[in-house]
Amino acid sequence: MPTALSSTDAPPAVRTEFAWWRPVRDVGFLLQFRAAAVRRRSAFRWSALLLLLITVAVAIVPAYVPADDDRRLEIAVLMPTAMAGIFAISIVSAIASGGGRELISREQGVAFPVSPITDHLGALLLAPLNIAWLIQAWILLGASAYGALPEFLFTAQTVILLWLAVATAAAQVIAWVVEAVRRRSHGIFAMRSVLAGLAAVALWVQLTGRTTQTLDEIPTLWLWIAGIQGFTLGWFSAILLELVLLFCLIVLGSIPATLAARRLPHDELRAETDTHTPRPMPWTDLSALLRIDRASVWRAVPMRRGMAVLAVGPGLVAVVGGLPWSSITVLPGLVVSGGALLFGVNAWCLDGRGLLWRENLPIAPGTVFSVRALVIAEFLVIAALVTILLASVRAGVPTAAELTALGCTLVVVTLQVVGASMRWSDQRPYAVDLRSARATPAPPVMMVGYSARLALSTTFTGLLFSGLSRVPDPTVSLLVVVPFLAWSTMRLLRTRRRWIDPVERARIVTMVAA
Amino acid sequence: MNEQLPAVEVTNLHVRFGDVEAVAGVDLAAYAGQATALLGRNGAGKSTTMRVLAGLVPPTAGTAVVAGNDVRREPLSVKRVTGYCPDVGGLVTRATAWEHLQLAARLRRMTEWEDRARDLLERFELGDAAHRVTGGFSHGMGRRLSVALAALHEPDVLLLDEPFDGVDPIGVEATLDVIADARARGACVLVSTHLRELAIEACGEVLVLRGGSRVATVRASDMSGEEGARAYRALLD
Fold first, then answer.
1. How far is B73 from chain A (nearest CA, A)?
2. Minimal CA–CA distance to A307: which of A409, A376, A408, A406?
3. Is B3 a member of any domain?
4. Which value does ipTM take for this structure?
5. Which residue among A225, A369, B30, B117 is least packed, with the fewest CB closer than 10 Å?
6. Is B80 at the interface with chain A, CB within 8 A?
7. What confidence tens digit (pLDDT) does each residue in B1-59 have?
8. Would you list the domain boundaries of chain A?
9. Residue B104 placed within a domain
10. pTM score
11. In A5-125, which ranges are E strands?
12. Under an 8 A CB cutoff, do B135 and A276 touch?
């Protein structure tokens, strides 16, 4: 006889759900939740389509570009190193963001039963929504299409696509392990020791001239060769191996993710309970505002971690690669763009709900705007200067033209990026809590859009001044810089005028403090 | 009928956010040396009205004059004469309590402010946490510091939005003392809350808002007791 469920019986939907399936379904629900919050759906769909089209184009078109075999061979030889390169970038990115991005922020997710495994799967899904990852992936796919003959395009690209997934999943596992260790007592010291050890090994490899030999021994070589030989047994083996690895890594990642979730992050806790010795009264209103804005930036865990990675990473690559000054000119644009993505693109979120109180302080809104722009600019310039300083170690003495071009690039890209950041901060403010290393100032999809636009403009500027650094007369760079500065200053002033408008400012303050 | 000029005078105030009308024709008058409570359910328009009076949100229509300053035309003057405790947060997460007080003192041109700041911190039992970043503060600690910040410069108009929310009895007592002190020195105090008992204890007059409009202005004593509770309940529906 059928009976109703007793209070101790689970409903049928719960009873039939397997424990391992629950996190996967939860990821789906969270994705739906995030998708529902997308403000401009049409723009979102077009952006997604554009990303897909770019990916398909870079994966196919280069194979049909006319080129001699020697050139194709040169690119093919570099492929195993490039495959290892994206693995390294994925590791750095996942570690810097404290285990990867969150599908739902800690503050929002506290009311929901989001398991560490769901969090792990979400971070994996969001990993490609990162411009550094995307550009490297496109370069890898493009190089693979170019290096492989058209008849082997399908086999080569399947190997590479699966490699991208494997590298990202492996990086995620490493990042969770690092995070789990960092959260133990003395964990931060342990991880810094490991990092120092790795840096020492890299330096030793470089100084003993074994870089090429080491790169030749990277195991990705076997995968690449299997991909460019067509439908052979080697290709089937490679695909099978990658699929098995991918599955194992995804499952394996849930273990350190769970371990990390059981412990509290020391650096974030310390940042929240830190005490600071009082300093004398600032002399001017401007210095008072600067002081509190700088505190908001430099005391934040994501900003400190991000600054370390952004400033030191490209500098070390430049040192290892022995970049000349004309190439170093491109670096400030990359560093400055990356720096703005840490908080600048949603600059008013630095105050969080404190913005309501700050808005009641009797100070001209224009001054508040100028100080915020200045604080972003100094953060970006410091990061870029550290990179340039590191890169200069092996670059020799620059000529006057190279030095002028570099200086011009730094000034222009900083103004461009600060202008864009303040403009976006006014147009699309978000209520974001930047306490966690995993927090981003805007939703992941918006971050991809911001980063793509910043990367495009700053790379163009960098390449232009890189060309000008080869012109012997430094005056040329100084002349070219004028229209750039005029345009960016005009746009920044326009944004400032918008902020001064009380209705517009009220909208921003209300949204940031929501 | 009060014969003195109101310190805060709001006439037919409207505030719209897109299609939403947060305040739909509020009128109020509050006087120096008196404390007035804004009571009402969530979404009644209390916080938006307070934000208008603090110079944060400009009115869409109507007028609001604070200590003789029109909030639309002279927002900076309004900010000089008001002290505002926002309803949510209200603190810069990575700055210390002392840094908040220092910034407020600097921008309000206060001299010899340290003793008053220390006194306020002690009254709100925040003396030990003065140099800690506020990101680690509990909700109640944050509320208490927000009230202290609003009262630091002894403003002509003290605007406290949900000052008792999540605050322990000692914090409530300190807040009531701050309100009493402000009234004693002739300041106008506006307290927005949904806690009827505390509103009655702190204020002499009560305005009840519903759906963005004022539905009643009564003496606080008329809202006390079971009779007052029933009357208040009837005004909310």
1. 10
2. A376
3. no
4. 0.92
5. A225
6. yes
7. 556 788 999 999 999 888 888 888 889 899 999 999 999 888 888 999 999 999 999 99
8. 21-28+38-270, 284-514
9. yes
10. 0.86
11. none
12. no
